[in-house]
Known about the structure:
75% helix; disordered N terminus
Amino acid sequence: MNFINTSIIRRFTLFLVAMMLSICTMAADFNQIQRLANQGDSKAQAILGSMYYEGKGVRQDYAKSIEWYTKAANQGDASAQILLGSMYYEGKGVRQDYAKSIEWYTKVANQGNSNAQAFLGAAYSEGRSVRQDYTKSIEWYKKAANQGNAGAQYNLALMYFQGKGVRQDLVLSKEWVGRSCDNGYQYGCDVYREMNELGF
């Protein structure tokens, strides 16, 4: 019995030591990242924004997350721009502001980010925080779809299927659904199979 207790105590002690080393490393990492961020390093600013957003190594603080993301985003950091757009869209750490959200998503979409492009495609398709515009929706979906974004490929297929913003084209619809399936979008695979069964 003493052997088991000693073994448990030894494991627990090793666990505590490992945790303390991890906390010390995290603190050292945080200090290093904060130093670089304060010196204007955009990657460090974006990382610091994420740490505050997720509460990793620091107390979760959306306002500080916004502060650091904004600094990085203003220097052109695409990851910070898309996350800032998301926070304005959801109203996390800031007053919800769809116009600012679209502004940041557009900046990062113009840099070629397919997720931002797909977001804008959906926003224009649904009239979510912008005036509904199927033509702009198609433009953004095509940009994202041509980069292999499976969600955009599927949504582009729907636009062709329904004839929204484009002339209805079932052949192109099926082609884009197939591409979404090829890129791992399971619902696209299901719809592609159904289209085959229905003779499209």
